[in-house]
């Protein structure tokens, strides 16, 4: 159901100067990717601008402090309140976004080699098989500025260059997160340092310059803009050949705003929700062992939060500048603007220090707004969408054929499509992570920088009648939360010390767990259509499409006796198949299934 979105009051805001900034002059360069001309006038095909922030939260209300985003995007578009990333970590999430594949299918599962980063993206063969390539094949010019992937660096940016871009200006490691000492690299030029200037201010100039360049080309275009804000400020002195030689040497600091925004929001604090620095521990695995934060720690984290809000003001100005430049060119109404982030963020929830990498709602349920031709204005939809859906959505906008190996579905962008999706779209989200979790704040006494064995598989199942989070850790700890009654995810229904519940959704708890575990068992290794239609793998006759239908008593024997549980063989830092436990292989892939599935249809 679509409902009007009410604009929330702002504590304070500044007017944007972005539209008064002169764009950088286009450099005469041979294009990196092919410039495919099309026979149709550009005006008949919509343009696309994709703004991708870094680590922006939804649940700590960061959008409430972004006046221009509210005015230009939220008021003029549709907000997707149940949009999720599928891996709460920068590089895996971005590769998923640009390929339409979950991390277990890209095998890019971390931020640095050997399990992630730009070198891993290259080794998996994606440099010639991802979104900008497909858009160029569809007749679009493609432009990008900002962060592309982690470990895309001053040492490896040209070995090889990122393919598929008509023109680009990439933010490079090890300076990606150093707000006042960024390094950008345009097309095939050598990197240029912008020491002393704010990274997002520089990015705004580059984005507006690329937008002018795109309009002048006369072709429909895609422009990706990826500011570093509101990520923590980071310097990595141990950076060699595209890799952090020792992640423990990375120096973390609070985000750094532009000077003109540095005094804003002095009274802002992390929202004091039930799960903020609770008196009793929550969660499982290493999270359940965290100590309560001291008052000094909490005050520092409030400062960290304010710095994030201040850093986001530059992104707000960026959005204002892009919209005004589109208006100046007369193409705003023929342009889709998509605003989202790679993953969410937590500060203090469940006693966690500033960071991401968990499957709690703060880390995975993230901002996502779309405005454009035919998109309902000032509306909110609660259909389930994920980052795997962006590649098919953008190809659909471009009028290009969709690929049959996408793990996601195109997102509906009209009132009719959104209404139909409330009746037919899937209700689940698959979440996965490998390796360590980091603490990005100051290390107070009793705290450590890294927490190892943060490998898990998780599942969100959401409908009008239930809202569940189920997770299995690599140490085989289990978690289950009912967000209808426990929105802060404080009471693990599978922890005997925390609950005496014997029923959930009107049936014995173990019956719900059996269905959820079987569903996640399929999803943890799903490919293509099985990722959006996993119940078909369990019930090939097609009688089940939702958890509610799967809870029918006639399936009790099947789920109680004939199913395979999720079990990890060991914890690993990346996706190593023989550590992942038994795998379900869809029979449509014509592979042998190592489980005795017996269906009671």
From TrEMBL:
Natural source organism: Neoarthrinium moseri
Q: Name one GO biological process term.
A: phenol-containing compound metabolic process
Give this protein's Gene Ontology molecular function annotations: arylsulfatase activity; glycosaminoglycan binding; N-acetylglucosamine-6-sulfatase activity
The protein in question is named Arylsulfatase
In what residue span(s) does the Sulfatase N-terminal domain sit? 46-400
> Which Pfam families does UniProt cross-reference here?
Sulfatase
The signal peptide here is: 1-18
Its post-translational modification remark reads: The conversion to 3-oxoalanine (also known as C-formylglycine, FGly), of a serine or cysteine residue in prokaryotes and of a cysteine residue in eukaryotes, is critical for catalytic activity.
**Keywords of this entry:** Glycoprotein, Hydrolase, Signal
List the InterPro entries: Alkaline_phosphatase_core_sf (IPR017850), Arylsulfatase (IPR012083), Sulfatase_CS (IPR024607), Sulfatase_N (IPR000917)
């Amino acid at each position: 159901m679509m409902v009007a979105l009410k604009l929330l009051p702002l504590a304070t805001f500044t007017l944007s100067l972005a539209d008064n900034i002169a764009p950088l002059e286009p450099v005469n360069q041979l294009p990196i990717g092919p410039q495919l001309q099309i026979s149709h006038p550009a005006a008949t095909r919509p343009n696309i601008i994709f703004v991708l922030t870094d680590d922006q939260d939804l649940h700590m209300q960061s959008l409430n402090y972004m006046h221009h985003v509210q005015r230009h995007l939220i008021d003029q578009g549709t907000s997707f309140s149940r949009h999720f990333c599928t891996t709460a970590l920068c590089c895996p999430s971005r590769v998923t976004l640009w390929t339409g594949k979950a991390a277990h299918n890209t095998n890019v599962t971390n931020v640095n080699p050997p399990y992630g980063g730009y070198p891993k993206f290259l080794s998996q063969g994606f440099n010639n098989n991802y979104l900008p390539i497909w858009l160029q094949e569809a007749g679009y010019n493609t432009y990008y500025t900002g962060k592309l992937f982690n470990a895309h660096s001053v040492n490896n940016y040209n070995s090889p260059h990122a393919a598929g871009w008509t023109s680009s200006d990439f933010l490079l490691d090890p300076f990606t997160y150093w707000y006042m000492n960024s390094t950008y690299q345009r097309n095939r030029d050598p990197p240029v340092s912008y020491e002393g200037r704010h990274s997002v201010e520089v990015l705004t100039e580059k984005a507006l310059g690329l937008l002018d360049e795109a309009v002048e080309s006369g072709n429909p275009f895609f422009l990706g803009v990826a500011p570093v804000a509101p990520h923590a400020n980071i310097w990595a002195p141990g950076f060699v050949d595209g890799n952090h030689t020792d992640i423990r040497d990375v120096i973390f600091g609070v985000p750094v705003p532009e000077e003109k925004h540095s005094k804003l929001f002095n009274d802002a604090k992390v929202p004091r929700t039930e799960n903020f620095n609770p008196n009793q521990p929550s969660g499982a695995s290493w999270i359940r062992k965290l100590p309560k934060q001291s008052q000094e720690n909490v005050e520092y984290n409030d400062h960290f939060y304010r710095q994030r809000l201040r850093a986001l003001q530059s992104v707000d100005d960026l959005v204002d500048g892009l919209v005004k430049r589109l208006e100046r060119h007369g193409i705003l109404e023929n342009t889709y603007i998509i605003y989202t982030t790679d993953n969410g963020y937590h500060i203090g929830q469940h006693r966690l220090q500033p960071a991401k990498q968990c499957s709690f709602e703060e880390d995975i349920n993230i901002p996502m707004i779309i405005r454009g031709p035919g998109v309902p204005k000032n509306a909110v939809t609660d259909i389930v969408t994920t980052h795997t859906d962006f590649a098919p959505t953008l190809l659909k906008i471009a009028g290009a054929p969709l690929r049959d190996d996408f793990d996601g579905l195109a997102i509906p962008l009209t009132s009719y499509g959104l209404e139909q999706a409330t009746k037919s779209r899937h209700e689940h989200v698959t979440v996965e992570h490998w390796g360590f979790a980091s603490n990005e704040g100051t290390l107070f006494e009793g705290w450590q920088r890294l927490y190892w064995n943060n490998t898990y598989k998780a599942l969100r199942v959401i409908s009008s009648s239930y809202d569940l989070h189920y997770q299995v850790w690599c140490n085989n700890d289990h978690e289950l939360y009912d967000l209808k009654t426990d929105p802060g995810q404080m009471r693990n229904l599978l922890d005997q010390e925390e609950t005496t519940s014997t029923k959930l959704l009107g049936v014995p708890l173990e019956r719900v767990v059996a269905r959820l575990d079987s569903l996640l068992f399929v999803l943890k290794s799903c490919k293509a259509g099985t990722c959006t239609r996993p119940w078909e793998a369990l019930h090939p006759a097609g009688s089940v499409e939702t958890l509610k239908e799967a809870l029918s008593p006639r399936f009790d024997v099947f789920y109680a006796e004939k199913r395979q549980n999720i079990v990890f063989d060991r914890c690993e830092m990346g996706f190593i198949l023989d550590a992942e436990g038994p795998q379900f292989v869809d029979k449509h892939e014509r592979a042998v299934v190592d489980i005795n599935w017996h269906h009671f249809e």
